[in-house]
Amino acid sequence: MISSPDNIALLEARALCFLRQDEPVFGPIDFALHGGEIALVEGDNGSGKTTLMRVLTGMLRPGEGEVLLDGAPFSLDTVAGAVVFLGHHLGLKVDMTPRENLHLAAGLYGRRKGTDESAVLREVGLAGYEDEPVRQLSAGQKKRAALARLLLLPARVWLLDEPYANLDRDGIALVNRLLEQHAARGGAALVTSHGAVSFAGGEPRRIRLHA
Ligand SMILES: Nc1ncnc2c1ncn2[C@@H]1O[C@H](COP(=O)(O)OP(=O)(O)OP(=O)(O)O)[C@@H](O)[C@H]1O
């Protein structure tokens, strides 16, 4: 179990705001996400959910405010191993297999103790597809291959942008199960979704963005 002193959030936003041509896309917003917490980012189309995720991964620079990771100011160096992002673009190399994609990611960011590529691919339901080129997988199978990365890498913070898209009923249950396991291990996750989300652990926290 990964632990952090109780009072220090794994991920914290203070008066965070993103501006495009001097107009706020979202914010200012404040939140603190501690180990064991899952929060849902809610808002209408265009309210800035994906933009918030991109700011939190360092792909976009905040207009105002700050982001803290484990209590320290966020930088591209600290975010690399500590945060894993699953976005609309799944970040898979389509000419490589799921196993090769995972191997590449683990080479960059390390592996969670006690697991390996075969085990996580089995866990996401891709047994038998480990060595097929990603371009030959269905949309849902590609999504599962991207979810396997969450299980393999040791990152404590998961940022999941519409993780349920393209998944069947089993896949949706899989995402919820992975989130519950991650929270039980002391990880934290921020999730955007337009669909209904349910966790055995009860109602997730909600962070609302307004268009
Ligand atoms: N690359 C871009 N250039 C200019 N404007 C952009 C760009 N990307 C997004 N926007 C605008 O920023 C605003 C927020 O977009 P964003 O994708 O963050 O919303 P969202 O809440 O994730 O929406 P959805 O629910 O439709 O996925 C929208 O008004 C959008 O038009």
Automatic annotation (TrEMBL):
Pfam families: ABC_tran. InterPro entries: AAA+_ATPase, ABC_transporter-like_ATP-bd, ABC_transporter-like_CS, ABC_transptr_haem_export_CcmA, P-loop_NTPase. PROSITE patterns: ABC_TRANSPORTER_1, ABC_TRANSPORTER_2. Keywords: ATP-binding, Cytochrome c-type biogenesis, Membrane, Nucleotide-binding, Translocase, Transport. GO terms for molecular function: ATP binding; ATP hydrolysis activity; transmembrane transporter activity. It comes from the Bacteria. One of its GO terms (biological process) is cytochrome complex assembly. PANTHER family: ABC TRANSPORTER I FAMILY MEMBER 1. This is Heme ABC exporter, ATP-binding protein CcmA. The lineage of its organism: Bacteria, Pseudomonadati, Pseudomonadota, Gammaproteobacteria, Lysobacterales.
